[in-house]
Amino acid sequence: MIRSNWISLLIFLAVIAVWEFACGWFSIPDFILPAPTGVIKTTIGKASLLLPHAGVTALEIIMGIVLSLLVAVPIATVMFAFPSMERALSPFLVASQAVPVFALAPLLVIWLGYGLASKVLMAAIIIFFPITVSLLEGYKNCDREYAVFFGLMGAGFWKKLRLLYWPWALPYFFSGLKVGVTVATIGAVIGEWVGAQRGLGYLMIQANARLQVSLVFAAILWLSVMGLAMWVFVGFLEKKVIYWR
Amino acid sequence: MLSVSGLTKNFEDLTVMEGFDLTVPRGGFTTLIGPSGCGKSTLFDILTGVFPRDGGRISWLGEDVPDLMSNAAYMQQKDLLLPWLSLIDNALLPAKIAGIDENNSREKASALFGRLGLHDFEKYIPQKVSGGMRQRCALVRTLMFEHELVLLDEPLSSLDAITRRSLQALLLLLQSEFNKTILMITHDIEEALLLSDELLVMTPMPMQVRERFVLEMPKPRRSSNPELLKIKEHVLEELEGDLNDTI
Predict the structure, then answer these.
(1) Is B28 helix (H, G, I), strand (E, B) or coil?
(2) Which residue in A145, A153, A244 is closest to B78 by CB distance?
(3) Which CATH architecture fits A34-241?
């Protein structure tokens, strides 16, 4: 574990070093590709500009996660409880993923406006699928012998769900959530690109138009850090909740 | 008394049992032994309602019942403890599901834990204890069912010889102290001879009772008992005969 952490760090540092060196060696102008030191300088120097926008994007992502959880958990549960519902809903679920979120973004902005709602919904749409599918898979993977045994103890479906299926599915749920939170930023940022007045996506579009590429990179850095932080947080939560593993 | 008569079960072209009869006296300890795949576990699945039967009757204490789901406690080779619950909470599951008062149940489970040498391990999760302890916990859970009838499906077969021996003594407690009526499946002839009042040797599929031994020797028994050794030899010969026929 420690060894792999060191390898990750070394790879990261090597990429940064090559990037820094290439920018200096080839004298690449800042408006094409700023050097890592320039990006860091902008990230720190423009922190007062970046932070409020990062806060808005973070809020959109968190609200998107909450919204998708509120929808995905009941839907996965209903699909598991009623196989006919699973058969009926599965095509819609798959179709929802076949439509690119880029195509939905302009529509959502028209319907829900330039505010938070359209971005929250974008993030939620992206997260919804991995959570629903993972949770459903987790429910279905419950060992049949346990389910039969619960039946012998007189447990009905809802008692089985609470005491057996849900805890059984938790590792699957967290796997889906981990995937979800890492891609949630995509939804929020695309929403901001299409139409917003705040957020890192909005800032990126504005900076790009002004050839402030180091600011674009600083925004990307913030997004990466946010995605990583959420992934780490979900991992931490997973360890706390699934204490028996 | 548990009475099974004329039980029939087919899986498509395969007849697992046809007109199968079985009687377990109230308070008795009856063991079924037979060649692998003869249908013993299917019998338990039918008795517990996991599989529907194609024919026959099941009655418990003189009353016909569709199955024994609500009349029997069940313990099998796999302990089926939930990894996210402590041992005591695992043992309390039947009471929790039945909606029985938790305080009383906890007291009862705690006393049984003490009795079975698990007192200091109540709060442990199953992963942190040995296979023997897990199986003892499963035994407490079986007792928490509060059903007089207990079905044991190779409950000790996954354990090492020493743990197995200590748990055999605990299985005897089910009958002697808790007045349970027990029907057990095992592959271990010695275990059957040490524990049972009645040993039924099964035929290969379609399953029938081939031979019945009434074991009247007092318990606990010693495996070196010459009478038991004689029966053991006889049963082994029969089962080996079945195996040779199959090969």
Answers:
(1) coil
(2) A145
(3) Orthogonal Bundle (1.10)
Chain A positions touching B78 (Cβ under 8 A) are 145
CB–CB contact A244 B83 (8 Å): yes
Give chain B's domains with CATH numbers.
2-71+148-246 (3.40.50.300), 78-146 (no CATH)
- Per-residue pLDDT tens over the stretch B173-226: 888 888 899 999 998 999 999 999 999 999 998 999 999 999 999 988 888 899
Contacts across the A-B interface (CB distance below 8 Å): 44
Q: Decide if A167 touches B, using CB distance below 8 A.
A: yes
What's the CA gap between B29 and B182, in Å, rounded?
Answer: 5
CA neighbours within 13 Å on the CB side: how many for A49?
A: 14
Whether complex ipTM tops 0.90: no
Helix, strand, or coil (residue B9): strand
Interface touch B84/A167, C-beta < 8 Å: yes
The helix/strand/coil state of A99 is: coil
**pLDDT tens by residue, A166-187:** 999 999 999 999 999 988 888 8
- Given a cut of 70, whether residue A109 has pLDDT beyond it is yes
